[in-house]
Structures are given as structure tokens and as C-alpha cells.
Amino acid sequence: MSMLPVLISREEVMRLLQNNDLIPSLESALGMFSKRNGTEVIQPVRTTVPLQKYNGFLGLMPAYIAHEDVLAIKIVSFYQRDKDSDLSAHQATVLLFDPERGNVIAVMDGITITEKRTAAVSAISAKLLMPPKAEVLCILGSGSQAISHYEVFTQMFSFKEIRVWSRRRERAEQFARAVQGPVAVFSSVKEAVEGSDVIITVTMATEPVLQGEWVKPGAHVAAVGACRPDWRELDDALMRKAVVYVDSREGASTESGDIILSGASIFAELGEVINGTKSAQCEKTTVFKSLGMGIQDAVCAKLVFDQWKSQQ
Ligand SMILES: NC(=O)C1=CN([C@@H]2O[C@H](COP(=O)(O)OP(=O)(O)OC[C@H]3O[C@@H](n4cnc5c(N)ncnc54)[C@H](O)[C@@H]3O)[C@@H](O)[C@H]2O)C=CC1
Ligand SMILES: O=C([O-])C1=[NH+]CCC1
Question: Which of 206, 228, 241, 256 is packed most tightly, with the most Cβ within 10 A?
């Protein structure tokens, strides 16, 4: 007998997935992952299929977390689209399985999950690594991730000033109008970055947009874009002067151009800081290089499904 999976739409995922629930669940999963107990968390490095002809990539992100008994896979595509495209850069679906029997129990939108969990993990990096009394937040990029990062960061922290820069100034202005609070729009990356305590890079850049010489000593950078081995968002100077943290060593060493091409060494995974086995060097300039992990999607899919079930 086959049972049909439930379908959970983007709107439902948006309603069911709350940032407050996300942070502790993601922290616990990151900590568990970094213990490298091979039966507790299983997450191979993302398999990526390049689609050269279309300037796109298809990524497969399976994960199993034993103590949560959650088995899921996210299928995500990301395309460098024309600016007038009506589709967002990332399209994603998460399949949630019954781990005991191997059947799919839910098929849900993965776009919102990707936006929210990525921003939540960056916020965890900031919580652990930003300088004390951080007052100025700077966001480079103005797309979907810029919005989700703004939402989580303003929910979790109280910055005195929030700045945004985007390649096209009108997009940065659009961003400033779309979000809830005041945002200062900058036309130059250098001016946006100088004096900032926390800098989030959420661009589709393939060459460095952020230079180390502009970054205030002791600042924290959450670097979210440049997820291909030949793509960059940060320059060598920044990668070499900062203490570098990652979500997964294997993922970062395979996929991050900022790490591979700069030759920077990885100091720790966020999970190691959460577990207390590596230090949070907040007094130094820190970079958190995020690539995204299947366990993050799996945790979210479980939260969404449990919420959905509780409302039936
Ligand atoms: N680390 C992770 O877990 C995840 C990372 N990402 C990455 O985050 C980045 C942002 O994603 P979205 O906001 O969804 O994309 P988006 O397409 O909504 O926004 C991209 C932004 O980058 C800007 N941009 C494009 N090309 C640029 C260039 N050459 N130089 C400077 N800015 C440029 C655009 O103007 C826009 O502001 C992408 O690199 C994406 O692959 C996305 C999802 C998860
Ligand atoms: O984790 C993720 O979903 C992605 N990381 C980079 C592109 C998509």
C-alpha cells in the first residue's frame, strides 16, 4: 500500500516556521554535527550538477539526524538569472521521509526554508562572534537573503544603525522601503563597510566585493554568497587576516572559493564553538563562511511538519 505525502506550500511554510524555534534547533544540530559521531548525524557534502548552458546549478542535500529521527533531502537550484527574470535565484523543495520505512511523508517548499535557516545560522555566528557592543550592521546585497537576514538580525539584536549596499542603488532603496525599520542606503561598498561592526555579504558575486582593508579590526563578517570553488565575495587580505569559522569543514574545503583560493586556514566550525571545544575569538576580526547544510534543512522540515501535524 502506498501513502501519499502531504504537500506543504510556500505560504504554509512561511506561517509554520518561526525564527524563535529555529535558533535552538539549529544550534543543537550544528553542535551534534561537529561531534562527528558517524551514526548520529549523516550529511554528505552537497552534490552539485553544473548546468553551464543555463548559468545554473542543481544541488542535492540529503541528511539524517538520529536523535531527532529526521531524514530529509533538499533539492535546490540556483541560477545567475537576468535581472528581469520573474523567478528568484534559488528554487528549492524539501522531501521529508519516514526514516523507519523509507517513504516520503511530506513534500514542502524549500525556498522559505533556505531563506530563513541561512539567516538564522548567520545570526548564530553573530551571537557567538561579533564584538561586544556591536552597533552598526551592514548588509551587502539586497535580494531574498538580504531580507531574511535583516528580519532575523533585527529580531535578535539591537543595532543602532543598519546600512545596505547593492550593485544597483535603486535595488538598495527598494530594500530599504520593503523592510520595517530605518536603513541607510550606500552607493559605495567601502563607505558602507567602514565603521561597521557586523557585515553580512549576501550577493551573487563571483569576484570579491568586500576588501579586508575596509573592515574595522574586530568586526564580524557573515559571508553567505560565493558557494562555488571558483567564486569569491571576500578578498585575500580579509581571508588571511580574519579568524575563519565555517559551518562544515568538508563543505567549505570543497565549495568555498574564498577559502580554497585564498589559502586561508579554517579555525573552527560553528558547532565546535557551540560545543565549547573551540574558542569564540570576538576580540579579533572574524569571518563566518556559510555554505549551507542539509541538516539545517532537515531540522526546518521537521519543525514545519510537526507544526503542520499539530494543526490538523
Ligand atoms: N550559505 C548558504 O546557506 C546560502 C547561500 N546563498 C547564497 O546567498 C547569495 C544571495 O542569495 P539570494 O539573496 O537568494 O539571491 P538574490 O538573487 O535574491 O540576490 C542576489 C543579490 O546579489 C547581487 N549581485 C548579483 N551579482 C552581483 C555581483 N556580481 N556583485 C555584487 N552583487 C551582485 C544582486 O544585485 C542581489 O542584490 C547567493 O550567492 C546565494 O547562492 C543562498 C542560499 C543559502
Ligand atoms: O544551502 C543552500 O541551500 C545553498 N547554498 C548555496 C546555494 C544554495
Answer: 256
Report yes or no on whether pTM surpasses 0.90: yes
Instruction: Give the chain as a DSSP string.
Output: ---PPEEE-HHHHHHH--HHHHHHHHHHHHHHHHTT-TTTEE-PPPEEEEEGGGTEEEEEEEEEETTTTEEEEEEEEEE---TT-SS-SEEEEEEEE-TTT--EEEEEE-HHHHHHHHHHHHHHHHHHHSPTT--EEEEE--SHHHHHHHHHHHHH---SEEEEE-SSHHHHHHHHHHSSS--EEES-HHHHHTT-SEEEE----SS--B-GGGSPTT-EEEE----STT--SB-HHHHHHSEEEES-HHHHHHH-HHHHHHTPPEEEEHHHHHHTSS---TTS-EEEE----HHHHHHHHHHHHHHHHHT-
What confidence tens digit (pLDDT) does each residue in 139-164 have?
999 999 999 999 999 999 999 999 99
What distance in angstroms lies between residue 4's CA and the mean position of ligand 1's atoms?
35
